[in-house]
Amino acid sequence: MSQKKISSVEKQKNSNTGFLVQGSILAIASIISRIIGLLYRSPLTAIIGDRGNDYYSTAFEIYSLLLLISSCSLPLAVSKMVSAKVSQGKVKDAYRVFKCALGFAVCSGLAAGLSVYFFADFFANLLKTPFSIYALRVLAPTLFIVAILGVIRGFFQGLGTMMPSAISQIVEQIINAIVSVVAAYFLFQRGMTLGAVLGNQEDYSAAFGAAGGTLGTGAGAVAGLLFVAFVFFVYRPVFKRRIRRSKATSQESYASILRVLILTVIPVLLSTTLYNLSAIVDQGLFKNIATIQGYTADQIHTFWGVFGGKYRVLVNVPISIAAAVVSASVPAITASYANKDHESVVQKTGNAIHFSMVIAFPCAVGLGVLASPVMQLLFQDSSPLTAQMLQIGVISVVFYSLSTLSNGILQGINRMRVPVINAAISLVLQALLLVLLMFAFRLNIFAVIWANTFFAAIMCFLNHYRIHKELHYKQEWKKTFLIPAVCSVIMGVVVYLIYFLTHLILRSNTISTILAIFVGGFAYFVLMIVSKGMTEEDLLAFPGGRTLITFARQMRLL
To answer: Are the C-beta atoms of residues 442 and 364 closer than 8 Å to each other?
Structure first.
């Protein structure tokens, strides 16, 4: 196909796949951020151990929940409202939305930060992990910083650009990685000294080391905020000129905007809180039931340290890609919905789901096949427990990716209460299953993994039913699910063979794992092109799509 034809295809698909370009930019940034996160978690784990990982993960569970309640719903709400205003030509109102949300973020972030700091002891004891109090108090100021950071990111996302969010994520994670490891090392030593005096060296060293790890989170958030604030002040004169050129004369009051913002935030808040509350419910139930069943404190610390500090760190990498697609798709779907363009809403929904599944399936299969090698590569952990956890839990990658995306789609079409109801139903069923698996089958930490997967699966089915009902959306199965799944399985065989043969010859887990990942990624790309799972039009939705097309043509795949 000529360059002119490629250009015409790009223009034709621009309106309904352009948001995927932005989504993929954010997805790539998320992948880079997660890779940096994986790299620094390896030395961090080596410093603080599984016990420290337990304290670190527990603090983050509570921090994440308070973050959700205080401000995590704000970026999505801001991007949704700004996108709707801009699509209607009400640019000045879009700026008022931003200022109103900024004031809201300052108040909510400050309240959440103070709550975590002063009630840290209560939260830590609630989850049977009292030594997580130090890490939790270190995280408290970060709630205030992230609230403001989220509003500025949401503003740019509502304007249709993901670059400030993408770059700030990478900057944030780099600073986080450096400060986390350095601070963990020095505070771990300080904890050992204090523990020797108090007669509990193991707990105090792990607790102080975990606090050092969380210090990096705050430092990274400050760096990310400084970057997006700089971009905002550079862009502000341009946006002011855009306001002056706007033809809209009516101006919405701040009171009206605040009311709409709160009405938008509350359903998003409830759904995301319930959606993520499953982690808190899991931990509370697991630790209490495990104690009743006679597991020692050391065993429980190890179980949860591996689950929170290794297993979830890995499975969250591909899930973050779905979250990036949500960040791009919600404002795009909202704009089409506000303009009553039903066909565009349906097409964007299908494109977003397809994009997400193209990524989720190979990630799930790859993690399952290379479970032990990846654990050895990143955490120097060759125990059967960690590998089995990852092998059993990888299917949750697909379900969590799809449920995260479907939540965003429902919010984009103003069905805000639906994810709330679905998350509540799923949470109750998950808790019941977890109790059953713990008591009836004594599956210990594996019960948590199965319950997590069940939660995400129920969310998928309930959300999909409502999307079908609200949009009369008919899911395309072959290209979206079947082809990526089959190609991923074949890729998994290739990955296993490459790893096995390379490791047999070189006896190097590092080289064998990295080579298997690269060969597997290439094999998946070829298989998807040959099987028509990805077309030329799909490739154009990726950053560097034209380069991918040229490469595929040189290989005679297109």
So the answer is: no
pLDDT tens digit sequence for 59-110: 887 887 777 665 566 777 788 788 888 877 788 888 888 888 888 888 888 9
Pick from 507, 524, 486, 492: nearest CA to 370: 492
Burial annotation 428-445 (CB, 10 A radius, 16+ → b, else e):
eebbebbeebbeeeebbb
Per the CB < 8 A criterion, the answer to whether 104 and 264 are in contact is no
CA angle 448–453–458, rounded 5-degree value: 125
Structure tokens at 166: 């993408």
Placement of tokens 């790299």 in the chain: 39
| Crossing angle of helices 445-471 and 297-306, rounded to 10° | 40
Q: What is the pLDDT of residues 179-188, one digit of tens each?
A: 999 999 999 9
Say how far apart CA 90 and CA 295 lie, in whole Å: 60
Query: Which helix (H) or strand (E) covers residue 82, if one does?
Result: helix 73-87
pLDDT of residue 9: 41
Query: By CB neighbour count within 10 A (0-12 exposed, 13-18 middle, 19+ buried), where does 111 fall?
Result: middle
State the DSSP H helix or E strand holding residue 251, giving kind and residue range, or none if neither: none
DSSP state of 533: S
Residue 6: alpha-carbon gap to chain centroid: 33
**Cβ atoms of residues 138 and 215 within 8 Å:** yes
Asked if 495 contacts 366 with a C-beta cutoff of 8 angstroms, the reply is yes
C-alpha separations of 150 from 42, 67, 157, 367 in Å:
28, 11, 10, 30
- Between CA 392 and CA 52 the distance in angstroms is 24
User: Rounded to an integer, what distance in angstroms lies between the CA atom of residue 401 and that of residue 526?
Assistant: 23
